[in-house]
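> Could you send the Sugar transferase prediction when you get a chance?

Sure thing. Input:
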Amino acid sequence: MSKRILLLLTGDIVVAIFALLTAFLIRFGELPAPGDLTRTGTVRVIIFVFIMIFSSFFVEIYNLNRYLGGKESAARISISLLISLFILSCFYFMAPLFVYDGMVLIFSLFIFGTLQLAWHYLCYISSRFSGFSRRVLVLGTGPLAQQIGNLIAAGNQNYVLSGYVNCASEPLDVPPQNIVGNEERLYETVMRARAHKIVVSLSERRGIFPLQDVLSCKLSGVEVVDAPTFYEQVTGKLLIENITPSWFIFSHGFRVTALLRYFKRMIDLISAIVLLLLFLPFFPIIALLIKLDSQGPILFRQDRVGEKEKKFTLYKFRTMGVDAEKDTGAVWAKEHDPRVTRLGEILRKSRIDEIPQLFNILAGDMSLVGPRPERPEFVNKLKEIIPFYSERHCVKPGVTGWAQVQYPYGASVEDAIEKLRYDLYYIKNLSMAFDLMIVLETVKVVLFRRGGR
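Output:
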């Protein structure tokens, strides 16, 4: 998780607690006694803080791709407060012991919203000052260096480009005016540019990598990373074109332990059972609508490739006509696909067609979160074209996943490459906290109907 997100989250947690205490002071003229902060009091504080952070996350307050602006930030925070008020009101009726007085709640929400807006704006202003930005020096001038330079210039993170360092035999694909030195005097160039980080972006390192100078920079406190690692840090996906097998072996991550698999499986089983109990009453209604809309079975069965490239049968509510691929064979789904029925369009956009995959979770073929399982016909083709494509099968496929919430529905080889970047990033950084974040993102994707076809 980005350090900036952690900074915003930490500030919002402090602001939430401060808002609660201030509202208590305004309402009763005194701060809560120490006894009020024990047992139910502590639970009430935790509930309030969690709901405020969840609502903020839900309306994408922590979106770092761009600054939202004062008006949009205020609008999103207002929506977040309304969501928080609704959830906390539900808590009040269900468990009044864990919710504060109504006036305390209103005051605390108003104070939190005001301070949150000020805190986020302060963080944005401070990140614009050069003294708070992290200066990056790119070692190389070739196409890879150009890609990293463009990534920094996009401004998605708190980085500024200090310039490029030219190395012998490297092509010149970057603006000449941005070259600030060469590899022979790298240490002096780094000190002169006051760079915080060096990104090694050489097309070929053998024979030209300035080992001693880079080592001197690292021992002087300058962070040194390679281009794939920097790309991962900024974008949340992997630069698979410039990754070698040794990078997979020696990089941090890619450790899916037996204990992690066990906890993940337990959560999958509990989640699948709870969700099935919630959705089972609606199954007859959905089945009836499918039958009335078009002839054919209610459930659609299709072979998919799962963990360790084992095939399994995936279940979905049918959204296409019978024998939709009889004449064409296996083809990518596309926007406004004529094979999709009228009801199928609604089921796909709302992701209701995915609900039967909960049975796949119970059977152990899938997980709640993981890479999307692909069809065998496409897997065989993609393995020949895309490097490291098979590595996505080292974990169970998921009903939802990092690629699904970050990228629209894939319908081509190019889309498969882009989604693989996210899938490998997920496997590299797999954790229960990451899974929880993906589930929360999935809720937003479903409600706002993003990316379905």
